[in-house]
Write a structure and sequence with these properties.
By secondary structure, this protein is an alpha/beta fold. It is built from eight helices and seven strands. The protein has helices spanning 12-23, 36-48, 63-77, 100-128, 140-143, 149-169, 194-202, 212-224; strands at 3-6, 27-32, 54-57, 82-85, 131-136, 174-179, 232-233. Bound molecules: NADP nicotinamide-adenine-dinucleotide phosphate (NAP).
Length: 241
Amino acid sequence: MKTVLITGGSRGIGKCIAENLAKEGFNVVLNYNKSEKEAKQIKKELKEQGIKIEICKADVSKRDEVKKLVKFTLDKFKNIDVLINNAGIAKLQMFNDITDVDWQEMLNTNLNSVFYTTQEVLPNMIHNKNGCIVNISSIWGMVGASCEVAYSVSKAGINGMTKALAKELGLSNIRVNAIAPGVIDTQMNNSLDKVIKEEIKNDTPLNKIGKPIDIYRCVKWLIEDEFTTGQIISPNGGYVI
Ligand code: NAP
């Protein structure tokens, strides 16, 4: 069975992807950072259903912690077939209010983490001439979001990395794709007020906010696919066309 390493699996989209892949029988390593209680709860609930999942704490914005996370996964399962770079943070603020610390934190967490995990996982994938990397980006990396410049930059960076790396890794049979979700109902959007959420819904042709399961379905398809690489796939209800 294939082994999946997913970053930021303790909540929201990552949790949904990790739980569902574990239920499908994949060997899953779920990474978390701050939400230890939530990660342990996921493991416990799955165990009660007879399903195994490994959890591993690591702050993926730090190279040394990513090294430990990848070593943990390889020690457990020998190979990594699928890397899902999902961990991310968001912050609403005017461009001129962004401090150097804010900027670095955003880029370290959302973009540099993808650089670190991918570099650490690649020797194993290249050796196996097999791999699937899925980067969770955002529509804001495609079209930009007002008051979310740092976030938009981090996701645009992911999109660029996805396309360039896909070209470099194709001959090693490693596919690199990004999923750029529209607005999805998770804690990340708790700070959006009701009126804004309603406006987004009304501006969405399918007239709804997305759910984590919508992103899981896309991930599952990308894992099974054999002819898609370098693509930015955007499940967004038609909000961005
Ligand atoms: P969420 O509910 O806030 O969950 C974020 C996850 O990222 C948590 O599991 C968190 O783990 C993890 N994380 C954050 N910093 C981390 C770090 N330094 N190291 C390891 N893990 C870290 O957000 P979400 O909505 O599920 O977002 C998941 C991904 O989808 C993000 O990349 C986000 O940008 C992207 N996305 C979301 C939306 C949306 O509307 N929700 C839309 C487009 C794209 P801990 O709590 O354990 O620290």
